[in-house]
Amino acid sequence: MVRLCPYAAQLALTTAAVCFMVVADASTTTPVANLCFVARASRTSAFMVADHAVDTYRSTYPRYDWRLRAVGRHGNGIIKDAVQAFAVNGTDCDILLGPGASSYAIALSPVVDIPWIDFSASSVELSDDAQHPFFSRMIPSDAYLGRGMATLMRRLGWGTINVVCSNEAYGRSITQRLAAAFALAGGKVAASACLETNADVASAEDLVRILDASPTRIVAVGMNSATAAFHALLNVTLTHRLYERYVFLFSESMCSGDPQWRAIPGALCMTFRSNATRVASFEAGYAARNRQPSVEKLAAVGIGAASVSTSTDISVFDAFSHDAVQHAMAAVSEHARAEGRLDDRTGVRDRIRSTVTQGLSGTVALSSTGDRSQAQLLLLNIDRTGAEAPVAFLENETLYGDRNPQTPNHFAAGLPTVFWFGRYESAQPPADIVQSSFELSIGLLAIAISAVLVAAILAFVVCIARRNRDAIERLMAGSVMGLVASGLLALAVVTVKILVATAVIIDDIPLGYLVSYLSVAGIGIASTLVDCVIRFRFVGMLLTSDEGLPFETEQYWLVRVKGTSVFTTVMSDLPTLVICSTMLATGTATTRLELIIALSAVAAFAVGYKITMIPSFLAEIARRSGDEDEEEAKNAAEDAELEAEFEDGLLPDASMMALGPSAMASSAN
Element (H or E) spanning 288, and its range? Predict the structure, then answer.
């Protein structure tokens, strides 16, 4: 036994040394920090960027072994799937990232009890810290974007707008905040309508009819780009070329995550501005990365490789996703330096909200409720080539030109050139309401012109009556009165055509329609003026002739009047109706009411124009009937005279007349 003691002592010392080494090694092992991501199927690039960001900043924040994994997916419209996926797979998560959509974030919030950073859920409902205590976000809330859009539109001189939304959390939130901010800035919303998320083209057509009844051509759109409502509106806009008569200003969801808005020429979109230098630096490593591990992580939650984005460009939402990862890693590391524990969820949440970082989207500073307090807004325009062109950016509610981002020009100096209505470029914003006011002034203008014409005709009649009292009787004759009335109506037709042509020129309609309409209108105006001259010359001749005009002369002038009338109808009135009807059917007119009035006016005057010829036709028929009666009476008188002469023996009897001249000569001898 004694000989064994030295070995027992050595064994004990060895065991103690091994135990010490194990404990020491355990004390130096880097703790794991699990970042869990609820992926959005339509924005897989956000997860890909987040995964690369973890690898990029791992060495910058070495206190933890950072691991990112997908714990759920969404995008099929079934919100409960994302909630259930997180409830099942997110039990060991330290930080939650995503889901990148307001409606899903609101539904997910009740089951989230860990620090949480979203990258693109912007609904103002999520600003309620009592309802969503662990929620923070990289994207500013819709209240911030709404103020920015309102500031932009007021700066462009637009005082009346239409507002369109999708009926879900994001759409309602952005449009409500926009409308409130616009009203606060002195603006007015003329029409407001929301499409259900599953809306079809027919519903979008109904919405367009609401817009058509509005006086303004500015349309602010707040829709979730992943909804059927947005694609239905896009379909109708392109089919009916609505962009040729409306200015569309989209909110960030449509231009930050969906490239389909680029199909709308001249469209505007307000999104968020990234730091170009930082983005370029990150993109270089992102493009060179091995993407396969990220693809496999998404496959684990049901997103196949074919659905994963292969783009190496960093979108606005990608930048926010990057910043969410960087901000979380910085805040957790700062919390650990302050002797904080990762399982101190409230402490980590507060640290996230108090930490300031420099991300791809600029300076990230959050409020005590987790809202981002500031970010630069960027105004994009779809130019003539169909590309997104930066026009201006907004910072602290001041607009700046964006043609040279390094040395921005103050926006007050003038708007950079913008592509408007899919047709022309100008630095001058179009008016929100077409200033022709045709539908309001046409009645007063027509009354004024009619009064002037009636006064002129009365003066004409009085002047003639003073010289020749018989002219009054002639004026009251059906043929002359019809010519005077139709002449006045012809002048009214000229006035209406000039007014409508002016309104069409002011309106922004396609060049082909404009040229076609003005061509037929010009023909109509010229021919109608000629018609008026002919009519009143004819009237003047009828009134001033003491013994009336010869029948041939009268017929000649009537033919000229009828000829110009038919020419005007065939060459101007009918083509005008066809062109106006086509414009109404294809929806290319800026203000439909103007064309409806024009259509009604031209039709009414064209019909009335012809109706006023009826008195002259009746008078001519009556005169011809009178001439026939007069001829019959004359013939009867001649017959009676001959019969009287025969009875007096002044004429031979009928038997002698039947024998011929020789018999009558013999009888006379």
Answer: none
> Distance (Å, rounded) from C-alpha 606 to C-alpha 598?
12
- Band (pLDDT 50/70/90 cuts) for residue 65 is very high
The DSSP 8-state label assigned to residue 128 in this structure reads -
Inter-helix orientation angle 592-611/574-586, to 10°: 160
Q: Which amino acid is at 129?
A: D
| Burial of residue 608 (number of CB atoms within 10 Å: 0-12, 13-18, 19+) | middle
pLDDT in tens, 158-186: 999 999 999 998 899 999 999 999 999 99
As a whole number of angstroms, the distance between CA 99 and CA 169 comes to 14
Residue 419's closest CA among 606, 264, 239?
A: 264
Give CA–CA dist 603/83, Å, rounded.
Answer: 62
Q: Are 169 and 409 in contact (CB under 8 A)?
A: no
> What is the reported pLDDT for 457?
64
Give 312's contacts (C-beta < 8 A, 6+ positions apart). 283, 286, 287
Query: Is the pLDDT higher at 464 or at 186?
Result: 186
Residue 179's beta-bridge partner residues?
none
Comparing 49-63, 81-95, 229-243, the range with the smallest average pLDDT is 81-95
Read off the pLDDT of each residue in 306-325 and give the average, rounded to a whole number: 93
Mean pLDDT of the chain: 78
DSSP string, 522-556: HHHHHHHHHHHHHHHHHHHHHHH-SS---HHHHHH
Q: Which residues contact 183 (CB under 8 A, 6 or more apart)?
A: 189
Res 19: pLDDT: 44
Q: Specify whether the CB–CB gap between 176 and 204 falls below 8 A.
A: no
How many residues can be counted in the chain?
Answer: 669
Are 545 and 473 in contact, with CB atoms under 8 Å apart? Answer: no
Distances (CA, A) of 72 to 47, 226, 484: 12, 18, 83
For range 260-283, the mean pLDDT: 92
Name which of 81, 80, 90, 141 is nearest 116 in CA terms: 90
pLDDT digits over 180-225, tens only? 999 999 999 999 999 999 999 999 999 999 998 888 999 999 998 8
Helix (H, G, I), strand (E, B) or coil at 377: strand
Element at 255 (helix H, strand E): helix 252-256
In this structure, of 198-207, 294-303, 376-385, 659-668, the range with the lowest mean pLDDT score is 659-668
- Dist. CA 304–CA 295, nearest whole Å: 8
Q: How far apart are CA 118 and CA 99, in angstroms?
A: 6
Beta carbons within 8 Å of 244's beta carbon, 6+ residues apart: 421, 422, 423, 508, 509, 510, 588
pTM value? Answer: 0.65
Residue with tokens 């009287």: 644
Tokens representing 537 are 């010359």
Identity (one letter) of the amino acid at 561? V
The full DSSP string for 33-94 is EEEEEEEEGGGHHHHHHHHHHHHHHTTTSTTSEEEEEEEEEE-SS-HHHHHHHHHHH-TT-S
Closest CA to 122 of 194, 225, 261: 225
DSSP-derived secondary structure for 179-200: HHHHHHTT-EEEEEEEE-TT--
pLDDT at residue 519 above 60? yes
Helices 478-506 & 614-647 angle (0-180, nearest 10): 160
Q: Which helix (H) or strand (E) holds 4?
A: none
Short-list 57, 661, 663, CA closest to 325:
57
Strand partners, 73: 39
Q: Is the pLDDT of residue 390 over 60?
A: yes
